[in-house]
């Protein structure tokens, strides 16, 4: 495997550059013509690809509590079953500890892992582990959050696109006017920044939509409750709450319900199990299927392709799923989503 990486590493060292969200739009349009090594999405995803050797591919996520992270783990496990490689799945014992992520990477590099599917806690913080993997000739696919320096590839959703798509859906539902609260992701996290940029990009073109507050809820349900409670006490009735993931959206709903408010348009991102049920019940208006299961399955397929014969991805960032996959979940589509697509039905 290290021989296969030698030429690639030379190119990387000459052309390495930090990834920024600025190139995401161009990458998305390019990716529209790319044929993936898989078909389907969510629970329907599959591939004919088979590993030529007994590779070891490790999936390292941020924590073992967020449903999104468990979706990532399950995607790599299923990919291992389908393609014939050993799937190693790990998470820090302390939630969201980048130091533990680095230690896990170092231990796996020492033991001879062949590839990483990585959900970094922090783009910059993860770099000691990323650099050691590069030195060892081990390819890394980042999911969602990119490393500060370019890795073998990045997949998962284009967070800027997700923000634009959901914000436009909210603007349409409001008829182009109203007051909005945004519950942001963790401060400084690249994926949270990209999603917020996409949301604001759309809301900025609606002069009659006012963002009265934009504050972090750290992708957590408890913080979604507390932050929303404080903000509605300060601003009173609002027309919509755009929460940057489902967990904070579900927290926002609890706060709105406790306050006796009605007809507040609440949206999230991820399409997790609780959010899907909340959409069915009319508690949430919409979510975006970020399909961590499928994203990590796709990532595994690209790694197997490369380990088999040196095939490299057509682009460094290939978003999956994207707008072309009809990712928005509303009351009209939620039943089909749960029945045929939902990534959280896998174990």
Provide a compact summary of the structure.
The chain has 347 residues and is of the alpha/beta class. The protein contains twelve helices and eleven strands. β1 (56-60), α3 and β2 (86-90) form a beta-alpha-beta unit.
SSE layout and pairings?
Layout: H1 2-15, H2 24-31, E1 56-60, H3 67-83, E2 86-90, H4 98-111, E3 115-118, H5 127-135, E4 140-143, E5 153-155, H6 159-173, E6 178-184, H7 190-203, E7 209-216, H8 221-235, E8 240-243, H9 246-258, E9 265-267, H10 273-280, E10 287-288, H11 292-309, E11 328-329, H12 334-340
Parallel strand pairs: 1-2, 1-3, 3-4, 4-5, 6-7, 6-8, 8-9
Antiparallel strand pairs: 10-11
Question: Your description of this structure?
Answer:
This protein is of the alpha/beta class and 347 residues long. The chain contains twelve helices and eleven strands. The strands form three sheets. The protein has a five-stranded parallel β-sheet with strand order 2-1-3-4-5, with helices on both faces. Strand 8, helix 9 and strand 9 form a beta-alpha-beta unit. Helix 3 runs parallel beside helix 11 (292-309), helix 6 runs parallel beside helix 7 and helix 10 (273-280) runs antiparallel to helix 12 (334-340).
């Amino acid at each position: 495997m290290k021989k296969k990486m030698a030429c690639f590493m030379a190119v990387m060292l000459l052309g390495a550059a930090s990834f920024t969200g600025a190139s995401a739009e161009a990458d998305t349009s390019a990716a529209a013509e790319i044929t993936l090594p898989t078909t389907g999405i969510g629970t329907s995803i599959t591939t004919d690809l088979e590993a030529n050797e007994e590779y070891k591919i490790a999936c390292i996520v941020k924590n073992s509590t967020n449903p999104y992270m468990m979706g990532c783990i399950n995607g790599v496990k299923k990919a291992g079953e389908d393609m014939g490689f050993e799937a190693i799945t790990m998470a820090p014992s302390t939630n969201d500890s980048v130091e533990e992520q680095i230690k896990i990477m170092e231990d796996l590099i020492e033991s001879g892992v062949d590839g990483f599917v990585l959900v970094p806690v922090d783009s910059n913080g993860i770099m000691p582990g990323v650099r050691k993997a590069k030195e060892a000739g081990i390819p890394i696919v980042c999911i969602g959050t990119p490393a500060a320096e370019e890795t073998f590839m990045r997949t998962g959703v284009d967070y800027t696109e997700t923000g634009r798509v959901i914000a436009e859906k909210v603007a349409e539902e409001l008829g182009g006017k109203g007051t909005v609260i945004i519950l942001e992701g963790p401060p400084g996290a690249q994926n949270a920044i990209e999603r917020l940029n996409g949301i604001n990009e759309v809301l900025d073109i609606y002069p009659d939509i006012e963002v009265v507050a934009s504050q972090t809820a750290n992708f957590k349900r408890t913080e979604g409750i507390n932050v929303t409670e404080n903000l509605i006490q300060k601003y009173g009735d609002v027309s919509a709450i755009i929460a940057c993931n489902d967990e904070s959206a579900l927290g926002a709903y609890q706060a709105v319900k406790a306050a006796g408010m009605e007809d507040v348009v609440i949206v999230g991102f991820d399409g997790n199990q609780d959010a899907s049920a909340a959409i069915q019940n009319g508690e949430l208006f919409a979510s975006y299927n970020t399909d961590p299961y499928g994203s990590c399955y796709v990532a595994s397929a690209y790694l197997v392709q490369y380990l088999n014969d040196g095939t490299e991805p057509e682009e460094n960032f290939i978003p999956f799923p994207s707008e072309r996959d009809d990712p928005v979940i509303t009351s009209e589509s939620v039943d089909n989503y749960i029945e045929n697509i939902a990534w959280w039905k896998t174990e």
